Amino acid sequence: MPISEKSMQFLEEHIPELAQSAVTQAYWQTLASGHSVLQSENGIVYEVFPDGTRTIVKKIAPPTPVRVGEKRVIRLHGTQVGKDRGESAPQRQTGTEPAG
């Protein structure tokens, strides 16, 4: 049964909160099962353990702030990722380095 445009828009508007809920649930389920999780905070990646302790894994570049609805072009190894086809407005470009 096809979904109406109104229903589709309603569902799309709730994707961010559904995604956040799923990530939070997975985080706690992983810790509850006795495994560790990785967490990024203030430019540092931590490994968080079920007992609440955490260790530094590595330092990373701080997050890039992005406004809701803002589009970015990310260049990785000379290719463009995330560029809308046929769009004539200039894009803000963010250079990123591969992890390693």
Structural key phrases:
single chain, 100 residues, alpha+beta, 2 helices, 6 strands
What does this protein structure show overall?
The protein has 100 residues and is α+β, with helices and mostly antiparallel strands. It has 2 domains: 1-62, no CATH class; 64-100, no CATH class. 27% of the residues lie in helices and 28% in strands. The chain has helices spanning 5-13, 15-32, and strands at 37-41, 44-48, 54-59, 72-76, 79-81, 92-95. The longest helix has 18 residues, at 15-32. The termini are far apart.
Spatially, the strands of the biggest sheet line up as 1-2-3
Mean pLDDT: 81
Q: What fraction, in percent, of the residue positions are helical?
A: 25-40%
**Which overall shape is indicated by the principal axes computed on the Cα atoms?**
flat
Output the structural class: alpha+beta
User: Main β-sheet: number of strands, strand sense, barrel status?
Assistant: 3 strands, antiparallel
Spell out the helices and strands N to C. HHEEEEEE
- Note the gap between the termini: 47 Å
Cα gyration radius (Å)? 19 Å
Stretches where pLDDT falls below 50 for ≥5 residues? Answer: 85-100
Strand content: 25-35%
Number of strands: 6
Number of helices: 2
Q: How many domains, in number, for the residues?
A: 2
Question: Can you lay out the helices and strands and say which pair or pack?
Answer:
Elements (H helix, E strand, L loop, with lengths): L4 H9 L1 H18 L4 E5 L2 E5 L5 E6 L12 E5 L2 E3 L10 E4 L5
Parallel strand pairs: 4-6
Antiparallel strand pairs: 1-2, 2-3, 4-5
